[in-house]
Design a protein that fits this description.
This protein has five helices and four strands, in the order H-E-E-E-H-E-H-H-H. It is α+β, with helices and mostly antiparallel strands. Strand 1 and strand 2 form a beta hairpin. The longest helix has 27 residues. The radius of gyration is 15 Å and the shape is globular.
Length: 159
Amino acid sequence: MSSLEQMYQQVIMDHAKSRHGAGLVQLDLPAVGESHQVNTTCGDEVTLRVGLDGDTVSSVRWEGQGCSISQASISALTELVEGHSIEESEEVYEAFRALMGNRGEDLGDDRDDMLGDAGAFVGVGKYPARIKCALLGWMALRDAIAHAQAAGVEGETHG
C-alpha cells in the first residue's frame, strides 16, 4: 500500500471514529427535512436531518449504522456542505458521485480540492460493492434537502 493510500485510509478511519454531525437533534430552523436510507445489499443505514436557512444548508445531523466507509462518508459530507448553499452542496455531491464512478482515479485538482476529506474515498471506486456504502449518506442528503425545501415552501417543518 502506498503512503498516499495509507493516508487516505487514515482519513476514512478518523471520520468513522469521530463522526462529524452525528446525533439527531431537533433543529430550530425555517425549513427542516429528514431522510432515512438503507443499503439493502449490506444493511448500512442512515437517518439524516437537514436544516435550511434560505438557500443555505445551516445544519446537518444524522445517526446511522454500518461499515466504516458509509459512516465516514456521511461525516465527511457533513463538513463539506454545512454552512454552504444548496447549489454548492449539489456541486459537491456531483463531484463525489463522479469520484465513485472514476474507478479509483482522481478527478483533477479543482474537483479534488472541492471534495476535501471526501477525496480520500477515491479508492472506493475500484470496488463496485462499496460504492453504494459511500453514496448512502449523499443520497439521504439530497432527499432531506428536497424535503426541507418543500417544508419551507409549505411553511411546515418535517422531521
